[in-house]
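Example record

One chain of 352 residues, shown exactly as stored in the release files.
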Amino acid sequence: MIIASVLSSSSQEVSAGNEANKKIEVYTILSNDPYASDTLKTKVIEKLAENNSKIDAKDVDYTKSHVTVSGLNYNRPGIQAVTLKVDLVQNIDSKKTTNYSTTQTAVINVYQTTAPELKLKKNSIVVNNGDTWNPSSYISSVSDDSGTLPVLKETDNVDMHTDGNYFASYSAIDGEGNSTSALLSITVKTPQEVLDAQAEEQAEAQAQAEAEQKEKEAAAARAKAAATPIDYSKLGSYAGGVQTALSMAGNVPYMWGGTSPSTGFDCSGLVAYSYGLSARTTSQQQALGTHHYDVANAPAGALYFYGSESNPSHVSICIGNGNSVQALNPNLGIQVVNNSGLMPDYYVVIGQ
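Predicted structure tokens for this chain:
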């Protein structure tokens, strides 16, 4: 049996019965090609792309496309009229493909000769995104009976920086123009550890952006609160304590365990100093009055608490209009803050 491949193609005017002359493709088939079907497929697709401006050979998925030949007798040398049914799968982008089909008449010349031999290590491979594309490394062997190495040509649509499916077409051509072709299917894939690192970076960037946005909103709320006038006449016995606390804002640093303007304050230290309290910790201060939960109605001078009933994690001094003065942390220090940035859980009016 003759194993055939396509050497070359040309166009020829032929007549059929009383029909007008029609232009058909002429392909020459060579014997002893182990990749006969791939060679035929490659040449037919290239010819279609040459004749049809809507088809780009680099966008065709060669591994999924099919070329079926009807009416060809591989055992009979000479010229034969055949029907080619072509089903192309075109890679429009990485998410969508469009099929293209056509049926055409062609002439194939079965020519018994020895074609160059071309062998690939594999028919399909998976490579890492970002690696260097080296098409020659996937060739197992290439030879010619004449003893002279044939000319090797390679075309592909590989993008090593974009995950997806690609192809590489190899052709070995001897001195007489006889050729053998082979197709390699390539999958570019990002390693899982790289994907994990990218996801972690994106999550960190998003968290940072969210934190920065929250800080901008909190800064705007603090600026608005600082600009809101306080009617000290309505504060009664708390007026002095509120004034003292406000005088620390922006002027005294935060200090864990601090109880003096010279060293700084933590949250409960600021409250104790401003009001002259012996109760130093948040646990002691939350017991100075009844717990109220309608925090939006807390009067100026009340103590806001954040966290549990018996052991809150933070305390601040209400100055009215949903604002408070508080010692926040070593980075932010003592500031006026709006409840929209940090909502208290309950409040206490000292002695009530």
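Notes: Confidence is low (pLDDT under 50) at residues 1-21.
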